[in-house]
Structure to design on (226 residues):
């Protein structure tokens, strides 16, 4: 093998190790776009910083917004949201089923560890916007909106234990890659035995839904009004 071929092989291995490390860090909650770039440049050297960087830096919410008064019940419910229609569907189910029994119904969005070091991070801004939409969508039925950092499942579980949550509610995410990504959140949450978890499936439109929407008749009494 020529010197050039050896050099190219070494370069490919250098970049591959760096990108693999950046991918592992993203799985652990460090999702800033700069980490893959650093992986390309620093290669295996990035592994020296990866372990420390992916440790749980901060417990509790990065930002907290009170939305509504406490509910009439005694349950404390956490709903994981991320700005997707599926998470709003999970929120809808949680409010429909649990509002009469909940004292607190908290919407929580997870951002990467990197955002914990900078309140102006774009992911913090996006999370605030998502939670503002959630508060408007829930029309006063959500009592609090919080932002936490870390790997999604670990961050939600840590928040639930810290805040004495009685039930975690999360939604599913469609098909293909998004469904595989869901496994990173739902499966670890379901497998733990500390806090019960409700996983809300994707809502599928039926012919009766479409007929009801096209009808001039009012919705049945049990239907939820947005």
């Amino acid at each position: 093998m020529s010197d050039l071929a050896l050099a190219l092989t070494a370069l490919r291995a250098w970049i591959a190790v760096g990108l693999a490390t950046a991918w592992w860090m993203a799985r652990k909650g460090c999702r800033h776009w700069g980490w893959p770039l650093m992986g390309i440049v620093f290669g295996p050297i990035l592994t020296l910083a990866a372990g420390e960087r992916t440790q749980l830096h901060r417990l509790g919410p990065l930002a907290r917004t009170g939305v509504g008064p406490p509910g009439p019940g005694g349950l404390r419910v956490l709903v994981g949201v991320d700005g997707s229609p599926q998470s709003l569907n999970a929120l809808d189910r949680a409010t429909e089923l649990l509002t009469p029994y909940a004292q607190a119904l908290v919407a929580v969005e997870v951002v990467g560890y990197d955002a914990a070091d900078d309140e102006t991070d774009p992911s913090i801004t996006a999370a605030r916007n998502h939670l503002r939409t959630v508060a408007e969508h829930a029309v006063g039925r959500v009592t609090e909106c919080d932002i936490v950092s870390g790997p999604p499942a670990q961050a939600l579980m840590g928040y639930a234990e810290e805040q004495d949550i009685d039930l975690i509610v999360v939604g599913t995410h469609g098909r293909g890659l998004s469904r595989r990504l869901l496994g990173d959140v739902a499966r670890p949450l379901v497998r733990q035995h500390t806090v019960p978890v409700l996983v809300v499936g994707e809502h599928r439109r039926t012919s009766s839904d479409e007929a009801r929407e096209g009808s001039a008749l009012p919705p049945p009494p049990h239907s939820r009004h947005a």
In short: Confidence is low (pLDDT under 50) at residues 174-183, 204-226. The first strand starts at residue 63 and ends at 66. The helical segments are 3-27, 34-42, 46-53, 85-98, 122-138, 152-162, 177-191, 207-214. The two ends are 68 Å apart (CA to CA).
